Amino acid sequence: MRRIGDAPAVRRVLISAAVLLSALFLLLPLVAIFAQAFAQGAGVFWANVSNTYTLHAIVLTLGVALLTIPICLVFGVALAWLVTRFSFPGRRLLQTLIDIPFAVSPVVAGLIYLLLYGRNGWMGTWLDSHDIQLMFAWPGILMVTVFVTCPFVARELIPLMQAQGSREEEAAVTLGARGWTMFRRVTLPNIRWALLYGVILTNARAVGEFGAVSVVSGAIRGKTNTLPLHLEQLYQDYNTVGAFACAALLALIALLTLAAKAGLEWRASRREAFA
Amino acid sequence: MSIHLQNIGKHFGATRALEPVNLDIHEGELVGLLGPSGSGKTTLLRIIAGLENADRSRETSKILFGERDVTNVHVRDRRIGFVFQHYALFRHMTVYDNVAFGLTVMPRKRRPSSGEIRSRVFRLLEMVKLEHLANRYPAQLSGGQQQRVSLARALAVEPDVLLLDEPFGALDAKVRQELRRWLRHLHDELNFTSVFVTHDQEEALELSDRVVVMSDGRIEQIDSPETLYRVPKNRFVFEFLGDVNHLEGRVRDGVLTCGDAHLNVDLPDGHEELLLRPHEVRLAEAPSAESHLPVTITAISPVGAEVRVELEADWLAKPWLATVRHADFERLALRRGLRLYAHPRQWHRFPEAESKAPEQRHVA
């Protein structure tokens, strides 16, 4: 007996198409990045990476990602909790609104923030009179990064929490658990893999975000330049090796993220098989 | 601990889930809330637990546990044990940790020492005969075992009242029987007050000291299983508590006629509907002076203490069900297709007007 669609010819064609396309569109660019970065030897690569501006860009990028993650985490959990545990008018609307950052082009998001908080923006005058600068400084970069990445955690949690329902939490409360105890001992363990997965996605996007950040950062070298922006500047300056060195760094972060994600998925599947 | 509910009603938005009801449950009683789905029985149970709030509009709404007014007391402080329909065990905790949960979340002042928690949890696991599975996870247990864990978990905090939502609904028939007996036994031994919800009339009648029959957000009757079965207050209760045969026809001069069937009844002229339980139908080879109800056997199920026989006739809208003793079954040589006469031993009548009392008559 052979399953439907399982003819050897079909299988071979599909598999080779998949391998070919992955190699062409995924693997080859990755190899090219590292090849270019090391084209003039490890010394030049290292000189480019250890350059003050590059180092600053790395620190800024990782710093923004580090601040973004906890904000998105708290926001995502709170939102998922609200949407899955309570019914109130406008709940569906809220669930749709969560997706706005995904639907809107990041450049538009950056422009909106500039319009609101920039010097000539709606809140700009007030902010300026209190000597607060948000745009063209790291707080602005953080704000747009949070905007762009905030749906990830909630998006991961909502379907899971919907499927799990609130019975276990109700059981915890009938047994005398207070709110925080219930969350820590019942809710959190049940959602922790989805939560970590959401964090990984958030991190990947926060590190790599270009469009929104490029609008609000002003790209001042050594001040408000994130790694993706720095990369673009190097490329515009015809410093190909430098640009690809940064690209290699970003690719490395992406690969580490992917590895972490794969590791988590592997653990989760093992847990499922076991529990 | 006794439970006193006064004027407790519930709306979900504009839908009425529960008409304001009053209910008294005595100390040590095992009470079943019985009704079809949507009858408000689970809502009532969840209101007793505090998982749902009764409508606040009524000032006189009140819930008492013994002398303690718990109307505005949060679930966690009501001292109840709740067993959920699908157990709701903590899936990431072992059986041991599940049972210990209620003890470990107690405020530090009241929390037993870890040694005492351990001995208490194992005492409970022993009681539910699961001590050998203490380190398993819920997903590794059968449904019946999970149910016993959830009972042990609920009892660990020594609740004043135990509330169970469809406790045996998801189990197969044999396990259900066994757990029912076991719960009854446990209840008699530990003597707590329990309320459970079920849609299975057999379960309610077998397990409960008293049964609360509900329909459409109303309490229809509260009585002991026996009274409930013998003296149902209305047609709904009668029909819900077992199989029912209908005999509908027109009465004239003391004879109810329906097609070529007729039955002597001592009733005024008019349209009548009589109801009969399967055991109230006797089968014979000939009609009698009292009744002439020709029927044909269409199905026979010989499983159980009695033989269940399905009867059809052109004067019947819906087939009848009769239960026959095995001895009679053999004596009459019953088989499919056989034509016989049905003789009511007794019938019931529930007048449409609420003011009129239901009636039961024996047939001579």
Automatic annotation (TrEMBL), chain A:
InterPro entries: CysW_permease, MetI-like, MetI-like_sf, Sulph_transpt2. The keyword Calcium does not apply. Coiled coil: none annotated. It is found in: Cell inner membrane. Its main location: membrane. Gene3D superfamilies: MetI-like. Residues 58-262 form the ABC transmembrane type-1 domain. One of its GO terms (cellular component) is plasma membrane. GO terms for molecular function: ABC-type sulfate transporter activity. The chain crosses the membrane at residues 55-84, 96-116, 136-154, 194-220, 240-260. It comes from the Bacteria. CDD domains: TM_PBP2. The complex is composed of two ATP-binding proteins (CysA), two transmembrane proteins (CysT and CysW) and a solute-binding protein (CysP). PANTHER family: SULFATE TRANSPORT SYSTEM PERMEASE PROTEIN (PTHR30406), SULFATE TRANSPORT SYSTEM PERMEASE PROTEIN CYSW (PTHR30406:SF9). This is Sulfate transport system permease protein CysW.
TrEMBL record, chain B:
Residues 3-241 form the ABC transporter domain. Keywords: ATP-binding, Cell membrane, Membrane, Nucleotide-binding, Sulfate transport, Translocase, Transport. It comes from the Bacteria. It holds the Pfam family ABC_tran. One of its GO terms (cellular component) is ATP-binding cassette (ABC) transporter complex. The keyword Chloroplast does not apply. InterPro entries: AAA+_ATPase (IPR003593), ABC_SmlMolc_Importer (IPR050093), ABC_transporter-like_ATP-bd (IPR003439), ABC_transporter-like_CS (IPR017871), Mo/tungstate-bd_C_term_dom (IPR008995), P-loop_NTPase (IPR027417), Sulph_transpt1 (IPR005666), TOBE-like (IPR024765). PANTHER family: SPERMIDINE/PUTRESCINE IMPORT ATP-BINDING PROTEIN POTA, SPERMIDINE_PUTRESCINE IMPORT ATP-BINDING PROTEIN POTA. NCBIfam families: 3a0106s01. This is TOBE-like domain-containing protein. It comes from Vreelandella salicampi.
